[in-house]
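Protein: Pantothenate:Na+ symporter
Species: Klebsiella pneumoniae
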Amino acid sequence: MSREQALEMITRERESRPTPPPLPIGKRHTSRG
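Structure follows.
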């Protein structure tokens, strides 16, 4: 799955659910150093 597909699924879940669980998105980019 690409990032665009994941974002689409997340946005659909947000529209269907009032309060989605928090996703650790910032932790993926912090692995660089």
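Remarks: The mean pLDDT is 74.
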